Amino acid sequence: MAIEEIIRLSEVTKRYPMGETEFTALKNINLAFHKGEFAGLVGPSGSGKTTLLNIMGSLDVPTTGEAVVLGQHISKLSHKASAELRNRHLGFIFQVFNLLPVYTVYENVEFALLLQNMPAQERKKTVYEALDWVGLTALAHKKPDKLSGGEGQRVAIARAMVKRPAILLADEPTANLDAANAHLILQTMKRLNDELKTTFIFSTHDEKVMGYLGRIIHLRDGCIELDETIKNKPLQR
Amino acid sequence: MKLAFQMAYKNLIGAGLRTWLNVGVLAFAFWVILFYNGLLDGWNQQARRASIAWEYGAGQAWHKDYDPLDPFTIQDGHGIWKEAPSDAVPVLIRSAVLYPQGRMIPVSLAGIVQSQKILALPTATFLKNQTEIPAIIGRRMAENAKLRAGDQVLLRWRDQYGTFDAANITITGVFKTDVPTVDQGKIWIPIEQLWKMTGLKDHATYYVLQHAESPKTATEWKYMAQEKLLADLDEIIKSKKAGSAIMYLLLLAIALLALFDTQVLSVFRRQREIGTYIALGMTRWQVVGLFTVEGSMYSLFAMVVGGVLGFPIFVFLAKQGIAFPASSQDFGIAMADRVFPVFGPSLIAFTIALIVISATIVSFLPVRRIARMNPVDALKGKIT
Ligand SMILES: Nc1ncnc2c1ncn2[C@@H]1O[C@H](COP(=O)(O)OP(=O)(O)OP(=O)(O)O)[C@@H](O)[C@H]1O
Ligand SMILES: [Mg+2]
């Protein structure tokens, strides 16, 4: 297959100090992701899903082993380079939406572009486009505390997608949403995955999410238990 | 940087009451600092003007043995200065004793040229009453000796050989001055009269100069530049400033403590936000910068709010002056009953710089730790 490999993890291990001893959250993980995947890390609580996502998002570094994201060795990046990588190429979606409370919806989405020093006109166009993807143009000037949970998470998607990142990392994005909103979010993300070829990587134990995934990586106690590809997944309604 | 300012602005406006509390105390500190220093500057300027007008002129030349702080030098600290500039005004000082209504008041008897124009002393009033010895005194002296214009009072003095002599003098005028040294314990009479009374013809203790440049002083006479004469005054104002500085620096410290506290709390409570900034692509130091700007912006707000609200008050004070009761006027240096504070550009700039810089430093200290934060822990809100 000639599809571009965008993430490669080799023997990634993450240990946390635990008093006298150490706790191993990830053990020798070997894993690769390719452009356009819609994949999920699935497993019980404490299995290491978030830890793995954070390493791929360059928010954390492996204790040993190598994580290469978009050709960059995560462990070797300076603070500046890793910030740059996140700003331009990685999008994050969190379980709690982490919207910036004093900013409007528009400003929340605009933020990453401001950091990129994008010119004002282009920025405005780009922000509205992103709001359009998630159907929130009408709420552009509301503050986050006036939004429903579903709307809040859609803003978070727009904020993560506005810079058209290569990879979007979503840590339990549906955990705080009701079923209807969860499906709406997932459909939105699947559509963006189809249209923009963004690679989506989820962490979840939500059955609804799993229904959408093209690949499910089962984690248990910091190890990969099963890596299954789901063929010809029909888009759920 | 511009982004940091915009963000900081939004965050502060969004933070509501706490913001205005911080801005309030900082603005108050701003006012107090400005007020105290403005008052002292105004006092200083008035006092300098008054001292020049009433006592120092453009400078003085002292007999080499004269020292105003040592009353014993009056006895011998005088002489004849042949090369004295023609426009300089000689003043001869002798000790004497006044006997108003049976009381006894030791005084300095100062002889001055009736026609002088350098000092504001109303020496022209010597001519008002064709008496043997006309005298003018200041308001404080008049009050102390219970004398009024037109009164006659017995004066006793020594001539050049130390022999006592006595005569009645007539108060021809009472003048009002802010300079206590020409007022308290001083009796001004025509110098020709004093020469006659003491036999010290053409002698002077010091000369008041018309021009600022140093005259060719003989070894007997030393030139006292105006600034040198005013140095004592500056010294007193300076020490008063230092004294009030302790008070307002304490106030500023309280304001800064509140700011420090706000910043500590901010870092603690806004961990997720910090983590989000980092996830969105800010470096840790950029976040430190953001929080620092936020803190120092409290002080900028305080300057704006304090300036806008304070401006009319300060203009009013500068125009109307502040009345001081007579009892507070015995500092030994010139003080008017109404002091007009002066809020000069350098005072304002200094005050603003003091507050903004100290607020920036205090804002920075607690948020430094963001640079060492693990973004993952921050996002979880787990840092204690
Ligand atoms: N900073 C840390 N210090 C110590 N242990 C940690 C730390 N972060 C995570 N762990 C441990 O590592 C393991 C994996 O954590 P992780 O958050 O990746 O799990 P998860 O699969 O995302 O779980 P969940 O479904 O509950 O979110 C857990 O047992 C957790 O206690
Ligand atoms: Mg997790």
Q: How many helical stretches of chain A?
A: 7
The gross shape of chain A turns out to be globular
Could you tell me which ligands this complex binds, including any ions or cofactors?
Answer: adenosine-5'-triphosphate, magnesium ion
Instruction: List the secondary-structure elements of chain B in sequence, H or E.
Output: HHEHEEEHEEEHEEHHHEEHH
Q: How many domains of chain A, as an integer?
A: 1
Fraction of residues in H or I helices of chain B: 40-55%
Task: Tell me the structural class of chain A.
Answer: alpha/beta
Number of strands of chain A: 10
* Beta-strand fraction estimate of chain B: 15-25%
Largest sheet of chain B: 9 strands, mixed
Overall pLDDT score of chain B: 90
CATH homology-level superfamily of chain A: P-loop containing nucleotide triphosphate hydrolases
Amino- and carboxy-terminal Cα gap of chain A: 30 Å
Measured on Cα atoms, how large is the radius of gyration of chain B?
Answer: 31 Å
How many separate domains make up the residues of chain B? 2
**Residue runs with pLDDT of under 50 for 5 or more positions of chain A:** none
Question: In DSSP terms, counting alpha (H) and pi (I) runs of 4 or more, how many helices of chain B?
Answer: 10
Task: Give structural notes.
The complex is a heterodimer of chains A (237) and B (384). By secondary structure, chain A is of the alpha/beta class. In chain A, 33% of the residues lie in helices and 29% in strands. Chain A is built from 7 helices and 10 strands. In chain A, strand 7 (167-171), helix 6 (179-196) and strand 8 (199-204) form a beta-alpha-beta unit. The radius of gyration of chain A is 18 Å and the shape is globular. Chain A starts with a strand and ends in an 8-residue tail after the last strand. The model of chain A has no long low-confidence stretch (mean pLDDT 92). Chain B has 10 helices and 11 strands. Chain B folds into 2 domains: 2-52 and 232-380, no CATH class; 59-211, no CATH class. Chain B has helices at residues 2-15, 17-56, 73-76, 139-145, 191-198, 226-269, 271-279, 284-320, 345-367, 375-380; strands at residues 59-63, 89-99, 105-112, 134-138, 152-158, 164-175, 186-190, 206-208, 221-225, 322-323, 338-339. In chain B, strands 1, 2, 3, 4, 5, 6, 7, 8 and 9 form a 9-stranded mixed sheet that branches. In chain B, a hairpin with a 5-residue loop joins strand 5 (152-158) and strand 6 (164-175). Chain B is α+β, with helices and mostly antiparallel strands. The longest helix of chain B has 44 residues, at 226-269. The model of chain B has no long low-confidence stretch (mean pLDDT 90). At the A-B interface, helix 2 and helix 3 of A face helix 1, helix 7, helix 8 and helix 10 of B. Residues 16, 23, 25, 43, 45-51, 203 of chain A line the site of adenosine-5'-triphosphate (ATP).
